[in-house]
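On clarity, I found the account of how folds are encoded harder to follow than it need be. Since the whole study asks how a given chain folds, the encoding of that fold should be made plain. For illustration, here is how one protein appears when written out as sequence plus structure tokens:

:::
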Amino acid sequence: MARNVAPEEATSAGTVGSTRPQGRRWWLISRCADSRREVLTTRCGAVTLSVFSFEEEAGLFLELKGLTPDGWRAWEIRAGEITSVLCDPCVRVA
């Protein structure tokens, strides 16, 4: 399942004003389609959003699921971006 996120909500981590320590990063799986960012969700009893601690983990997940040819990639995010993803496009995520 994929949820769309407006491009203005899809900024990269490490920007000025981040509340997390600079060394701490999180990663989601996403792709851009029709000027919107789609965020990959999975179903494990309920719809879930996979959040990874390392870019390599997200990349391995992509490879194991065979999603790389479809334009999916690891997307670096910060705390406020997770909130924005959960509040609008992924409101049904458990």
Q: What stands out?
A: Residues 6-20 have pLDDT under 50 and may be disordered. Helices lie at 55-65, 79-87.
